[in-house]
Amino acid sequence: MVKIGLEVHAYLNTHTKLFCSCSTIGITEAVENSRVCPTCLGLPGSKPVLNSSAINVGLKIALSLQCKLPKEMFFSRKTYFYPDMSKNYQITQYEIPIASKGKMESADESGKPFSVSITRLNLEEDPAKIEHVGGSITEAKYTLLDYNRSGLPLCEIVTDPVFKTPRQARLFLQNLEAVLRYIGALHPLFSLKADANISVTGGERVEVKNVTGYREVERALQFEIVRQNNLVRRGEKVERETRLWDAQAKVTRTMRKKETEEDYGYIFDPDLPRFSISKESMKIISKTLPELPREKIARFIKSGVPREIAKSIAGDLQLALFFEKLKSKSAPRWMLLLKKTLNYNDILVSEIKLSPEQFEKLIVAVEKGELSERAGELILREAILKPEKLTKLIEDNRTLSEKELKKIISEVIKKEKSAAKILRKGNRKALEFLVGKVMKASDRKAEPKNVKKMLRKL
Fold it and tell me: Is residue 129 domain-shared with residue 144, that is, in the same domain?
């Protein structure tokens, strides 16, 4: 039996850090150690001041995940000695987090929905970025530190150990990121990071630390299941520890023996007061929540969009907004082709210049029979990168008239006499062969279903 729980870290979409006024805008491109101040460097005498925007964003996440909120909350100091936190403690929440006992709908491998219970949500500051030069932490010649990231507001979302397979964990992360993007909670410059806790029957719980990317989380968990099961089968002990995922070697490696919560020596941070959220404030925040993915999916399905297509479209907010500007009946199916083309080119829908109106023009041309399905797909591949060529591409690839098509088919039948003879006897393979020849002769401008119909007739 496998048990998996996730600790997901989301960078909050605020303009400044959690406890100081250092800007977070464009921070990933900033010169190293240029977005720092005495507070986020932990210098003696500096005092943290809580960013109210981070609290509001955290509460939006809590409401979206149907969490319970405490009457009051406070921050604590989590003590550990490591260079990424220069003051030797991290300001976080432990005793009373910003929210707890929530839930979110996800799905298993078969698409069957199941509810993921959320243990807690807590806010904390991010540590500095560490770069070990010349090898791993144990082999590096020296270590570089960039404190630009130190103090960025993080929301840690902790689940119960409800996942039974790595794929379930991956699907949950995808759904969670969709929710956070919808409500504008996730900083646009960052993706989710996850710590995965995993255990198998007969072994201790192991934490795989700081894995970025859905696929990498799934791969790390798959490796751990095999590693831990092999240890148990050999009669060896699966020890409680923290491991790192090596994405290049596709293995996990020991980082340190797992600490207990007592090792961190949590104490109330005396520099920050306790605070509470009024019911009036919660009402104001709840009114700012947009339509969530699950609600959008339900609306799409009600309007006639197939369930799987609705889920695929609604999983990306920008894709969903693009789709909502389309009116054609076949738009849902064409959105799957658009998504496939975007993935192939490794670009987002927000990065393309092809407008919904232009995309609609292409769909309508296919619906009217002015373009073949195949021609429409090929045009989309080019128009997604060069939308200014769309009109000309449609004109150059218009389907043949009945007279033009009849002429081409007649010539193919004369040339492929043996295949035509076999077709007259009812051989389906001969039909597909001749359709292919006609499509090639027509430079793909013919519609296959029209070709088949006329071939049978002639």
Answer: yes
